[in-house]
Design brief:
Blueprint lengths: L3 E2 L10 H13 L9 H21 L6 E4 L2 H15 L6 E5 L4 H12 L3 E5 L9 H5 L6 E5 L13 H11 L4 E5 L18 E5 L10 E5 L25 H15 L2 H21 L5 E3 L10 E5 L5 H10 L2 E2 L1 E2 L12 H5 L4 H4 L2 E5 L6 H19 L2
Parallel strand pairs: 1-11, 3-4, 3-5, 5-6, 6-7
Antiparallel strand pairs: 2-8, 7-8, 9-10, 10-13, 12-13
The chain binds pyridoxal-5'-phosphate (PLP).
Pyridoxal-5'-phosphate binds next to helix 3.
Length: 383
């Protein structure tokens, strides 16, 4: 294929090994893991192996992994489940203005139920101020939810500091982290962050879509969103999606393999794209953190005077695939709440594109993308 796929924060191409495994499990190991015969047992072993793989990447106990239908469900399970279950202890919740809609909309829902929610602001790099968090945590705070890597700008939040502050001020406040963009791609310092709940998704790491997990620390109580059988400790009842879960486990293991060198590779790709645009005298602005500080695979750029959607389609015609704003928000061309919250002016908001890399990309692609963007920007500026 000649296409250059730079939309890996929206979703990734599955590893062929993952596709092979999922297909094999679907056709051959089709038993219900709850069945008592050997077909059920075999399916149960598939689940156990995937749980082991995911837990090992997170460096946690297998028993603490709850498989879900993806990041969205894991975020709902964490935020709504923790708030409702612990309401007798308090009604105060804290999150940030840059969370993914699957977190933000849970908090909006909880506000309707009478919870009080504080939304932490971010600076121009998209990063929260830990001291602002310190000013908010109190004895009524039951849950704090802060993402790791932002899906639009790649900003990384100071989670270790946040964890320290939260636990210092209220030992029983639950700390949830949406790590959908960083799981297996970056080291997750679960212990150092003093995290209680971590959300992961499979399709961002070359696994099947429609599967993910929530890591639930020992002792953390959640109210389930679904009621049924006792699967996944009763938190996620329903017959398990074994083919997808098997693929997720393998994808997690494969993505995390050689993590350090992949991080270096992704950072090099990002810098190659920036360098390639500079070499071609293209006028652009980097949105969010300094490229060396943010997540290695995400780069958000504005091209003043060029409409993002037009540029996106012009690049598509050249076989280069990127996002305008955040693709997770479907196709509505509304200004991004993340870019607004880092204080981007209208002109830059409307011309912002997100380039997101994976280890399947190479430097030639980054350079060809820079050439394509330069050509497209020039064409559009001359129109
Ligand atoms: C930061 C973040 N959280 C949550 C999600 C939702 O994950 P999923 O697509 O698996 O529901 C996404 C992407 O869609 C994301 O980027």
């Amino acid at each position: 294929v000649n296409e250059i796929y730079l939309d890996n924060s929206a979703t990734t191409r599955p590893y062929p090994e993952v596709v092979g495994l999922a297909a094999r499990v679907m056709s051959d190991i089709y038993g219900n893991p709850s069945s008592m015969h050997d077909l059920g047992l075999a399916a149960g072993q598939v689940l156990a192996e995937a749980r082991r793989q995911v837990a090992s990447v997170l460096n946690v106990n297998d028993k603490e992994i709850i498989f879900t239908s993806g990041g969205t469900e894991a975020n709902s399970m964490a935020v709504i489940g923790a708030a409702r279950r612990n309401r007798n202890r308090g009604d105060h919740l804290i999150t940030t203005v840059v969370e993914h809609s699957s977190v933000l909309n849970c908090f909006r829902c909880l506000e309707q139920e009478g919870f009080r929610v504080d939304y932490l602001a971010v600076d121009s790099r998209g990063v929260i101020d830990p001291e602002a968090l310190r000013a908010l945590v109190n004895e009524k705070t039951t849950l704090v939810s802060i993402m790791h890597a932002n899906n639009e700008t790649g900003s990384l939040q100071p989670l270790a500091e946040a964890g320290r502050i939260i636990k210092e001020l209220n030992r029983s406040a639950i700390f949830h982290i949406d790590a959908v963009q960083s799981f297996a791609r970056l080291p997750l310092k679960t212990k150092e962050w003093q995290a209680d709940l971590i959300t992961c998704s499979s399709h961002k790491i070359h696994g099947p879509r429609g599967v993910g997990c929530l890591w639930v620390n020992r002792g953390v109580q959640l109210e389930p969103l679904l009621y049924g059988g006792g699967q996944e400790k009763g938190l996620r009842p329903g017959t398990e999606n074994t083919p997808a879960i098997a693929g997720f486990g393998l994808a997690a293991e494969m993505t995390a393999q050689g993590q350090d060198s992949k991080v270096a590779q992704l950072m090099a790709l990002k810098l190659a794209l920036i360098g390639g645009l500079h070499d071609r005298d293209i006028h652009f602005k980097i949105n969010g953190p300094d490229p060396a500080e943010g997540a290695p695979h995400i780069l958000n750029l504005s091209f003043p005077g060029v409409k993002a959607e037009v540029l996106l389609h012009s690049l598509e015609a050249k076989g280069i695939y990127v996002s305008a704003g955040s693709a997770c928000h479907s196709r509505r061309p509304e200004p991004s709440h993340v870019l607004e919250s880092i204080g981007l002016e209208e002109k830059l908001l409307k011309s912002a594109l997100r380039f997101s890399f994976s280890s399947m990309n190479c430097e030639t692609e980054a350079d060809r993308a820079a050439a394509g963007v330069a050509e497209a920007v020039r064409e559009l500026q001359n129109m």
